[in-house]
Every structure is written in structure tokens, then in C-alpha cells.
Amino acid sequence: MRGVARSGLRRVGFTAISIAAIFFIGLPGNAQTLADRLAAQDFEVGGLRFYGATVFTGWASSANPLTAAGAQSVVTSGAPVLGPDENYGVTASVGWQYHRQRTDISVMYSGSYQGLAHYSDLNAYSQSLAATFSRSLTPKWRFTLSASGQDSTLAQYLFQPSTSLAEAPSSFNDLAAAASIGQFTSNQIAAMLTGSPILQSPASNLLMGNRILSYSLQASLQYRVSSRLRFNFASFSAGGQNRNEGQAYALPNTIALPRSLGLNAAVGFSYSLSPRTEVGINVDGNRIDNLNQKAYSTDVSASIGRKMGMHWFLEARGGGSQIQVIEQSYGSPKTRNIIGGGSIGFRTYRHSLVGSYDRNSSDTYGFAVGTIVLYAGTWMYHAPGSRWTLFSTYSQQQIRNTGFLSLSGWEAGGGLTERLSDRVSLSTQYMYLSNTGTYQGSLTNFAVHSVRMSLGWNPQPPHTSGN
Q1: Which residues fall within 8 angstroms of residue 237, CB to CB, at 6 or more apart?
Q2: What is the pTM of this model?
Q3: Euclidean distance between CA atoms 433 and 284, whole angstroms
Q4: Rounded to whole angstroms, how far apart are CA atoms 301 and 305?
Q5: pLDDT at residue 196 greater than cutoff 80
Q6: How does pLDDT run across 31-62, given as a tens digit for each residue?
Q7: Which H or E element spans position 453?
Q8: Distance CA 452, CA 88 (A)
């Protein structure tokens, strides 16, 4: 198949996937992982499909980390302290696909129910929906539209069954293409790895509460001038809002950020200096709107990426940002920022590694303008023919220079998966999440330990990724 160039917007492309998806790495046993979606796409089978199901049980150091002993939060000030609890539940996902020579469509719905042994009033159902439409308008023009939504609690978010690029069963060339180096091997994989991200940010719960509804919509148009030169036009909107109404132990009147909205429009081009080296320039305009801030930012950045060999790549980008505040209730942000970042990817038959650093002046979901820094990395080991898979993940988020908010959070985890058969796997995972900072001068912090064991069934046999 002819290679497919990456389309869309860098800031919500590789950065969003490697950060949002790496934040909580999924397991092969989980039902609605990106790996399952890509494996299904690899078979190019259309129609309605069942992707898999998982049953799980686990333990967390608090039934609601925002109200754990020692935690401080403007969201839950005065709420009762909740202790540790055991949990159990089930997840499942279904989807529909349509693939033709010029058109690709996919829709996927996932549902998850989690119950608690001692605080049953917090039993909850979470769900997510993702859809992608991609069509070649002419041999040179391609249009892509993707949307996603999620309604989830913090407890269920801790083990969000999404998969990082390091675990996705795509080739090394697809991994590099997600970082804007080279071309994707198919339109289906391109759409999956660059679609609208679902909100996955530890800061969001500190501001919005225990249950959040998030949504995003992304449209992109790519013009392929030649095999080397491509122009991209993209727009993106995303938002989040509190959904604590009717929940036990919820205090809706204390929510710091009831809802937020982020808008983005961008234009850029990329040029392949060689099959292994690609450069680009992007111009982004952003708008954020929330209870504390209404502001615009304009970003200009340049990038360069190179496949350093058959197994690894490097990518770097840098530029500047100007912020214009329309309205702010508390303090004032830094109006000029240096933006940029970089990524590294490594894949062999046994090891997969993805790491990224990103510095921006605005948050995709409209939480704030200022200095937004994200670090993320994930590693996976799987020997060919082995039933065992080892993995670990780390990420950190910092929000600074906003005038009203200063937060720093990090999370780390790891686990082990054993494939019991072609379609059944058993996974054990540990996660730790810690956040601290200030909101309008008030201290806020919480931390939580959590472990989970899950048994997953996938109707599709395992897919072996390319090298």
C-alpha cells in the first residue's frame, strides 16, 4: 500500500497521543485498548464488531482520592474523609467500521462499571465514544474529521484502558510518522494515531471534581503538493465540565472550574529533506474560556525529525507564543512564552520505548494560559513467542505562570501481563498518582496508590507488530 502522510495538527497529534495515552498505559487484556482498535483495523473487516471484555478487581488507598486523609482541595473542602476500599467491575467495547479505497470510517463505544466494597454509593458507570471519518477528496487532498467524548470518575480514570504508542501494534514507520517523520502505512492507522484525544489530565480532577464529562472535535485538511511537500490546515475544539450532580459525597457548590473550553486553528507545512529527515513550520491560534480566564494565544514553531536508524527516531520543535488576556478574575499570566519540545521513539523485536517533552502556552481543553509543561515516557518488553509482557510508565504535568493556578502532578506505574491463550490474558498493574499546588492562593494536594488484576478476552487473535 502506498504510504500515507500524516495529517492534522502537531499539538494534538503525537504530543496528545504520547501524553494522553501514556498517562495511563493500557494492558493487552483490557477491552478497549488502542491496540485492539489497530489490530481490528489491520484486518480491514467492516461492519459491527465486538472488540473485547475485561473483568477486574483491585484496591485503592482511598475510595475518592480527593477526600482521602491528608488531602486538601478546593473541590472537596468540607467533604467527609473516605478510607481505602476494594473495587471490582467489568469493561466492554463495540465498534463499527467501513473501509473503501477513498473512505475510512470507524466508530467505537466503550463502557465500564466499577463497584466498591464499602462505599457502594460511589459505584459508577463510565463510558466513552470515539469516531473518525477520513476521505481522499482528490489524489492531492485528504479530509479527516474525528470526535471523542468521555464521562468518567477519577477512580475509573486511574486504570483508563488506553494504550500508548509504545504498545500499539503498528510498525516503527507508523511510530515515527505519529511524530511527523515520514508516512503512515495506511489511512486507518493514521486516523487512529492522530484522532481527537480524550481528556486525561490529573489536574482536571483537582479543578472539576470526581466525575468529568470531556469532549473534543478535530477537523483537518491536507494538501499534498509532491511526495516531499505537504500543507496542513486544521481546527480543534475541546471542553470539559463537572458531572458531580447526584453523586454521593459530592459538593457541587465548591467546584473550582465547573466547565472549560479550548479552541484552536492552525496552518503549517512539512517538507521531507530525505526519506529519513523531515522539517516543518506551524502557526497556531488558540482561545480558552473558563470561569477564571478568557484569553487568546498565538504560537509559531519550527520542527525537525529524523529516523536515526532502523529502530529509533528523534524529533525536536521550538518557537514562541504571545498571550492576550481578555478577562481574568485573579492575578495575570505571563504574556510571552518560549514553547517547544521533543520526542524519542525506539522499537525492536523485544523492546518498545516512547518518551516526550512538551512546553506550551495554553491547555488543549481550556484550563489555563501560561506555561504548560508535560513529560511522559513508557516502556514495554515482550520477547517473541513469550506469554509474558512487562511494562512501566511515568508522566508529569506542570501548570505555571497562569496568575490563578499553579499545579504539579506526577504518576508512575508498571505491571505484568500473561497471555493465557490466543484470546485471554491476565494482567496485574500498580499505579501511583500525586498532585500538589495552589489555586487562587489556596493549597491543594492529594495522592493515591492503586493496584488492579484483570482478566481480559479479545475475540481477535494477537497481532505481531512490525519492526
Answers
A1: 216, 217, 218, 261, 262, 263, 264
A2: 0.81
A3: 32
A4: 13
A5: no
A6: 344 444 444 444 456 789 888 999 999 998 88
A7: strand 442-457
A8: 9
In the chain, the percentage of residues whose pLDDT exceeds 70 is: 69
In a 10 Å sphere around its CB, with 0-12 CB exposed, 13-18 middle and 19+ buried, how is residue 121 labelled? exposed
C-alpha grid cell for residue 11?
Answer: 499539538
* Burial class (CB within 10 angstroms; exposed 0-12, middle 13-18, buried 19+) of 327: exposed
Q: Which three three-digit cell numbers place residue 25? A: 498505559
The DSSP result for 6-70, as a single string, is: --S-GGGTHHHIIIIIHHTB--TTSTT-HHHHHHHHHHT--EEEEEEEEEEEEEES-SSGGGSTT
Q: Please list the residues that pair with 259 across neighbouring strands.
A: 241
Averaged confidence pLDDT in the chain:
78
> By CB neighbour count within 10 A (0-12 exposed, 13-18 middle, 19+ buried), where does 267 fall?
middle
Neighbour-count burial for 250-266, b at 16+ CB within 10 Å, e otherwise: bbeeebbbebbbbbbbb
| Per-residue model confidence as pLDDT tens digits over 383-409 | 988 999 999 988 888 889 998 888 888
Dihedral (C-alpha) 298, 265, 14, 360: value to the nearest 10 degrees? 20
Q: What per-residue confidence (pLDDT) applies to 121? A: 85
Go through 147-169 and write b for each residue having 16 or more CB atoms within 10 A of its CB, e for each that does not: bbbbbbbbbbbbbbbbbbbbbbb
DSSP string, 391-438: EEEEEEEEEESSSSEEEEEEEEEEEEEEE-SSSEEEEEEEEEEEEEEE
CA–CA gap between residue 29 and residue 59 (Å, rounded): 18
At the top level of CATH, which class does the domain 4-457 belong to?
A: mainly beta
Sign of CA dihedral 243, 246, 249, 255: positive
CB 446 within 8 A of CB 25: no
- pLDDT tens across 253-305, in order? 445 566 889 999 999 999 999 988 999 999 999 999 988 899 999 999 999 99
**Residue 194 above 80 pLDDT?**
no
CA angle 144, 27, 82 (to 5 degrees): 105
Asked whether the predicted pLDDT for residue 248 surpasses 90, the reply is: no
Distance, in Å, from the CA atom of 60 to the CA atom of 65, rounded to the nearest integer, reads 9
